[in-house]
């Protein structure tokens, strides 16, 4: 089946630094990718919708200058957490929609960010 | 607006017992998709099933079965003869066909603990 890969799986950084998380669709082209955040023992909350070649659409309450999303190609979207703080520590999961198949979403393995 | 409610936050059962996880959804769309995902402690989301709104046929896959009732807006998930490996958090999710990219709205999740 289709595979979506995230990197890194784990990242620990100091407060104030920026962290980039990559989401790649390995065997299909994804015009749309989604970024979710999951705090411990909570559900997944959509942060933004990333469309290839255009600006991301952010959900209400998500700071676009804080969480920079770039979707430069049909197989890669990146999420950069800028000037990370401990409250940004979370599990970030991306999903990608196969452009050739409606209704099917594939999830990455997730990236666990810990900000010290 | 779409909404998914999983009223059971935690369920604990003994091995070999049957268990049903409830899911109730709200949507204004007539065309939508319902999903169940399993999230083991490692964090990745494991796809279990997708059902579209026009298909109310119940489905059985091994020890898993799903009951879709449009009249009550419910999409319940039953595990028969539960096993310790079934211990995980289970998420029900909804995708509306009219929403660009088919983004998912997740329920709060149900943590299932199967004791040996």
What topology emerges from the helices and strands here?
The complex is a heterodimer of chains A (116) and B (116).
Chain A: E1 4-7, E2 10-13, E3 19-25, E4 30-38, E5 44-51, E6 57-58, E7 67-73, E8 76-81, E9 90-98, E10 105-107, E11 111-115
Parallel strand pairs in A: 2-11
Antiparallel strand pairs in A: 1-3, 3-8, 4-5, 4-9, 5-6, 7-8, 9-10, 9-11
Chain B: E1 3-5, E2 10-14, E3 19-21, E4 24-26, E5 32-39, E6 46-52, E7 59-61, E8 64-69, E9 74-79, E10 88-96, E11 105-106, E12 110-115
What does this protein look like?
The complex is a heterodimer of chains A (116) and B (116). Chain A has 116 residues and is mostly beta strands. Chain A has strands at residues 4-7, 10-13, 19-25, 30-38, 44-51, 57-58, 67-73, 76-81, 90-98, 105-107, 111-115. In chain A, the strands form two sheets. In chain A, strands 2, 4, 5, 6, 9, 10 and 11 form a seven-stranded mixed β-sheet that branches. The radius of gyration of chain A is 13 Å and the shape is globular. In chain B, β7 and β8 form a beta hairpin. The A-B interface holds A 32, 34, 41-46, 49, 51, 91, 93, 95, 97, 102-110, 112 and B 33, 37, 43-45, 47, 50, 52, 91, 95, 97, 100-109, 111.
């Amino acid at each position: 089946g289709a595979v979506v890969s995230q990197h890194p799986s784990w990242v620990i950084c100091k407060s104030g630094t920026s962290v980039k998380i990559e989401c790649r669709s390995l065997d299909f082209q994804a015009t749309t990718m989604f970024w979710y955040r999951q705090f411990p023992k909570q559900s997944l909350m959509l942060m933004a919708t990333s469309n290839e070649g255009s600006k991301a659409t952010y959900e209400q309450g998500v700071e676009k200058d804080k969480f920079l999303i770039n979707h430069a190609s049909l197989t890669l979207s990146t999420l950069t957490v800028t000037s990370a703080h401990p409250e940004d520590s979370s599990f970030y999961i991306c999903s990608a929609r196969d452009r050739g198949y409606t209704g099917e979403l594939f999830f990455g393995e997730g990236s666990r960010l810990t900000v010290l | 607006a779409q909404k998914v409610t999983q009223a059971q936050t935690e369920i604990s059962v003994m091995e070999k017992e049957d268990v049903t996880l409830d899911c109730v959804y709200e949507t204004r769309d007539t065309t939508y998709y319902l999903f169940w995902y399993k999230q083991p402690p490692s964090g990745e989301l494991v796809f279990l099933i997708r059902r579209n709104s026009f298909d109310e046929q119940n489905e059985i896959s091994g020890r898993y079965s799903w009951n879709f009732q449009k009249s009550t807006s419910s999409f319940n998930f039953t595990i028969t003869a539960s096993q310790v490996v079934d211990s995980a958090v289970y998420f029900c999710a909804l995708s509306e066909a009219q929403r660009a990219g088919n983004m998912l709205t997740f329920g709060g999740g149900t943590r299932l603990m199967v004791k040996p």
